[in-house]
Amino acid sequence: MPGVDEEQFQNEFKNLARLQHRNIVRLVGYCHHIQEVPAMYEGKLVLAEKIHRALCLEYMSNGSLEKYISDECDKYDWHTGYGIIKGICQGLKYLHTKLKPPIYHLDLKPANILLDENMVPRIADFGISRLFGDERTRATKSTLGTQGYLPPEYIRNYLISSKFDIFSLGVVIIKIMAGRAGYYRSAEMSSHEFTNFVQENWTNRLHETSSLMKAYSKQVKICIEIGLSCVQEDRHKRPTVKNIVDRLNETETECTYAYKKFDVQENSGGLTPDYFMNNGRPVSEVPLNNDASPSKQARTAWQYPTDMTAQQELGERQAASLPDGIYEPPRQISEGFPESGGTTRVKLRFVDVEGPKDPLYTGCPVQWLNGENAKVVIFENDKQITQGNLSKLKIEILAVHADFFTERGQADFTKEEFNKQIHMYNENESVLTTVNLKNGEACIGSFFFTESYRKKLRLTARVERQDLAVRVQEAITDPFVIKDHRSALNGKRYPPSKEEAVHHLENISLKGKRCNDLADKNITTVKRLMRHYHRDKSGLQKLTGMKDEDWSTMVTHATTCDPGVEIYSYGVAEENCELLFNDFYDLVGVLTNGDYVPVSHLDQFQQLKMKSWKMSAFKKLEEREKSGVLIPDYLMMNGCPVRTVPLNNDAGPSVQAKRTSQYPNDIAAQHEFGDRHSLIGFSLAEVLSNNDAGDSKQEQTVHQGHGQPDASITQANILNDQGSLSAQPTPLHNFL
C-alpha cells in the first residue's frame, strides 16, 4: 500500500477486520514488514525504516462497478442492475445501523464497489472512513471523498453525518440507471421529468428483454425516485438507508405478486395457470379460463390429483403456458415437509470433511480436520439432487449455538426454532459466507470469525430463500469454540516488530482492560512497553495486573522483538564515559575514552555502579524524547557503536569517541578478547599518536605493561563520524 501513512493503514485494517457482511468486501489476510535501509539524515548516514504493508482482500472477478457504468447502460439487464443497487444499500445499512459505533464510508463511488462472479456488489476501500458514536454530526476540515460525490454541506461547511454517504449513494444509483451523461442531465430537468426520462429508457429495454415489463417498469421508477431523493441539497430531507431498504423491499413484494399475475395475453394459444400455490394452498390469482373449472374460485384448497401419473399430466399441461425457466416437473418427495416431527427427506450435508478443527481462532481461516475445504451437497432420500431448481439454490454458511442441537437432535426442530439459535442472528449480518449450488453441490471457500465466543458453536448450511414450499433440512457440524488468536490478521508474529500495537503481544487483548490501562499511560506500542519495562519492571506488571505466569509469557514474547541498531548515549562526566542504551532503553554497554565494553563484560561491582546512573539516564532520555530531539547518537554495527550525529547531552565526556574497536562475533572469542584487553593500560591518545606518526602496518602488536606482546588486533574498516570509512585500530581501554 504505497503512499499510505500508518494512521490510514490502521484505519483500513481495523475497519475491515470487524466487518462481516455479504455486501462488504472481506479481509482475507494482512502483512506488515519493516526493513531497515541506509539513508542520509542531516548529512549523516543513518538506518531508516522502510515499511511494507499489504491487505489481502477476497478476489472480485468482475472488478469494480466503474467499468460497467456507461451512457448506454447496456452492460447489464435490469435484474442485475437492481441487484447491484439493493446490495449497495444493504451494505451501507450494515455500516450505518448494525455496527456500534457506526461506520461512515465517506468515499462511496463506483470505483469502490467491487463485483463478484455473480455480480453481487461489495463495498470496499475504508481508508478514510470514520467511526461515529452518539454524536450524529461533526465538522472537520480534513479532505475527504471524491469530487462529484461530496454533499453540499461538506463542501460548504465540512459537515459529516450519515447523510454524507446517502448523497454519494444517490449519485451512484442515478449513474447505474442513467449513465454518466444521464446523471448530468438530472440537473437540467425537474425530478418528474428526469424520472420519466429514465423510466422510458429502461422501459424500451425491458420490452425487448423481459416479459415482466410492467412490473419492472414500476420498480425502475421507484429506484430513480430514491436516487433523486438522496441527492437533495437539504440533508435533512434525504432518506435514511433503512428507509431506502424498506422501500426497495416493498417493490420486490409488488414484483413478486406481479410475477405471479404476468399478462395472460402474452401466453396466447396455451393454457394459463388457474391457481398459484401459497403456503401449500392453491389460491386463485387470475380469472379462471378452464371450462371445467369450478364457478367459485377456491381460497383454501383445491383437490389435486393423488395419482402420480395424473399429477405429471397436469404439470405438463400447465407448463406449456409458462415462460422458460418457471416450471419444474413435479418431484416425488416424501409425504409433506413437516415443520416439526416427521421425516425430512431433502437435506443439506457437509461432505468430504470430518468437521472443523476445535478450537477455531479469530482472524484465521476456518480449518477442517482433513485439511481440505468442505463441500455442501443437497440430497433427497440420500441421493444427490443434480437437476432442477433445488440443485441451483444459494446456500448460506452460519454459526449456531451448539447446546440446542445437542439436546433436541438435528432433525427435530422447526425453521423458526433454528433461526433463533443462529449466533448473533440479526437479519443476514451473521452470514459468514455464501455459495451457489451447481449440480447440487458447492465447495465452501475461505472464511473466518472476527470475535471469540466461549460457548460451543456449530457451523451450519441453510438455504438462503426462506419461502420455499419444500423444507430443506440444514446441515450441522460437530461443536467447536472460537478463541482469540493474534494471527497474521491481527499482527501477531514471533518476533513482533517494535512499532506494532501493544495488544499484539501475548495476554494483551485489544478490547481488554490491560490494553486500556496501558493506553492511559501512553504505552501503545511494543517499543513503548519495552522502554517502560526496562525503567520499572514491577510498576509495569502492577499496571497490567498480570499474574506471574501471564506476565512471564508476555515478557518472553516482547523480548523476542529486535530493538534495532539505534543507540542513545548518556554521558557521565565524572567518570569520562558514556552509557549506551538501545531503542528499548536497555543498557548494552559503556564507552570510555573511545573504547566500547559490552554490558556482559562488566563485573558485578561495575554493573552495580551502572545501576546508580541508570535512573538519571532514563530521565534524560525521556526529556529528549518529549522535546522531540531523541536522535540516535550511534548505530550498532557488527557489535560496535558507530557515531552517527553529534552528541545531544550536555553531560557528554570531554573526549568524544571517533572510532570503536572491532568486536568478535564468536562468543568464546568475545570473552577471550574482553579478558585480554581488560588488562591493557594505554590511552587512546597514545594509539592515535602512533597512527599519526605513520604506522600503516596491516597488523599492530599491543604490549602489556611488562613489555611482552599479548596479541595482534587486525585493523577493521569501520564508519567514522563523517560517515566515511576509516582503517584505524582502536584497542579497548581499561574500564574503571
TrEMBL record:
This is Protein kinase domain-containing protein. Residues 1-252 form the Protein kinase domain. SMART domains: S_TKc. It comes from the Eukaryota. GO terms for molecular function: ATP binding; protein kinase activity. Pfam families: Calmod_bind_C, Calmod_bind_M, Calmodulin_bind, Pkinase. PANTHER family: C2 CALCIUM/LIPID-BINDING PLANT PHOSPHORIBOSYLTRANSFERASE FAMILY PROTEIN (PTHR45707), PROTEIN KINASE DOMAIN-CONTAINING PROTEIN (PTHR45707:SF76).
